[in-house]
Design goal:
Two copies of one chain form a homodimer. Helix content of chain A is about 30%, strand content about 25%. The first copy, chain A, has a six-stranded antiparallel sheet. The longest helix of chain A is centred in the middle third of the chain and has 22 residues. The two termini of chain A are about 25 Å apart. Chain A is α+β, with helices and mostly antiparallel strands. In chain A, a hairpin with a 3-residue loop joins strand 1 and strand 2. The radius of gyration of chain A is 14 Å and the shape is globular. Chains A and B meet through helix 2 and strand 4 of A and helix 2 and strand 4 of B. Strand 4 of chain A pairs antiparallel with strand 4 of chain B, so a sheet runs across the interface.
Chain lengths: ~140, ~140
């Protein structure tokens, strides 16, 4: 069965590119730099359903992403989470957090309504990310 | 520097045992089966600060835990997260979630005040876990 991105993720996110295992999405919420990795595999809800090689690949893609986002944004903390109570398709959040952000220290999920990016902001994002995440094959 | 468990984790959790890399804690909140893995390493805040071998070990311990908790509790979803906005010492939550639990579909963090276990509940927990998590060296 070929991979289909969940419709809610499709609606809420901007497709940035691809790593070896995962699709890289940007949550369309300008309040926090918020990235999501989605393994391009059908029918997976939980990390432990991946085989050992896929788990290690997910871990390496997540760490590569976190390491580079950390260098780019200098966050106080990165929140990494596989929740999936609303969207069950396995996806791994990476949210850049600052003590000065509006939800701190609470988690961002459900804290505030999203505020989408405008085109100029998005353009700047992409330029900075493309320079930094060279292991990602960007599609835009 | 030898490993010291964060004082807040010490206060909020029950120490269950040890895997090769991580200490296994039970959050003392009877509202959800809620487990925490803490790599026994000093000065680590983020997963990407681990070396490749430690990352893979964390992944395998997390998946072993999730797989066995899944068989034991038959959850609708497992929420796995490294947040650390309040406790910066790296720790990985594993929360068993049901559509019928009181916070669903919201995350559990900050949703409700904790309700500690009583001794009888805790005893039952430990008996079931010891039978299931045979790769964990239980300390009680």
């Amino acid at each position: 069965m070929s991979f289909q991105l969940d419709s809610r993720l499709q609606q809420d996110c901007i497709h940035l590119g691809r790593f070896e295992l995962c699709r890289l999405l940007l949550m369309n919420d300008s309040q926090y730099p918020w990235f999501i990795l989605v393994p391009e595999l059908e029918g997976i809800k939980e990390i432990h359903q991946l085989d050992v090689k896929q788990r290690q690949q997910l871990m390496e893609e997540s760490c590569y992403l976190a390491e580079n986002l950390s260098a780019l944004y200098r966050p106080d903390k990165i929140n990494i989470a596989s929740l999936g109570n609303i969207v069950s398709q396995l996806h791994l959040h990476h949210v850049i957090r600052y003590q000065s952000d509006k939800a701190w220290p609470a988690p961002v999920w459900g804290a505030f309504n999203t505020i989408p990016y405008d085109d100029a902001q998005l353009g700047r994002y992409l330029m900075r990310l493309k320079d930094k995440l060279t292991a990602c094959q960007f599609i835009i």
